[in-house]
Amino acid sequence: MLEGQRNLEDRSESDDFENLTAQCYFTKFRHTLSRLAVEVLSQGANTFGCASGSWKIWSLSDGYVDLPAESLRHPNNKMCRQAESPQQDDSLVRLSVNCFLFDRSGIDRVLIDCGAGGSWDPSMGHLVEAMAEAGVETSSITVIALTHAHGDHINGLLMPDGRRAFNSLRKIMIGQDAVEEFLAEPELEEFRPLLAPINGGDRLADHLLAVAIPGHARGHMGYLLNTDEEDVLFCGDLIHVPAAQFARPELTWAYDDDDSIARASRIKLLQGAADTHIWLAGAHLGRPGIGRVVEEGEGFAFIPAAKPLTTELS
Ligand SMILES: [Zn+2]
Q1: Domain count, the chain
Q2: Cα 262 to averaged position of ligand 1 atoms, centre (Å)
Q3: What pTM, to 2 d.p., does this model score?
């Protein structure tokens, strides 16, 4: 049994996860009838586009960040040695920073998270360039859904020179419990009128459900898109080091607010995703950051929607 499963079973089922599994039941049923797949439309160094039903989904790279490998921890808080390190430096792990966009004709496009802007390392803050590469105008973005209020997810609302990145923005969906942290960034105060606080279980549209994923940050929120053919869960920071945490989801990340709740959420959601064949799209999954989860050994494995290209932003 995986470490953390006991915690998991002790926790009462959250309404959000009940909603998620109810929603996914139908997908599971459909999958027993025929295996549907997303159709890859395009792939570039920093962009990936696919279609599911009448929906288009883009994965857009904001860049990457190298962080101390010691941030990955065993449940007893011991440091975990990482097997893979893209920079040949095993003191660091490289995290992709992904944003996502989905739309269908007749509805507002929704951008999931907006990257780090100019607030952090220059290896991040490239969302607008990725959008240009994908042929998506920043002025076409009217709705942003934030998974949480950490800097690598919200600061891309502003360009490095302080201008707004998305001039037509009308609404920013954000977990109710993440609002305070968002507004703690003085430069983001100007977005206060656009904030639309939500809670797990809220149905945001016919096709879109908010799913609370507690543990990583206050108000950490997933967004479950139903395309009529697939369910895609934009799961934010459920996983930080995919090379380690799919196989060993009990490993925690030092930046999680609450290790044990984050671990329980991760194990429960990965199990749910493997059981119901939903797609996961994660902010720090390796490019293209979207794929399926299967059980493997004591843990899980991730099957990306497409092989990553080797070129990355630098
Ligand atoms: Zn993050």
Answers
A1: 1
A2: 13
A3: 0.86
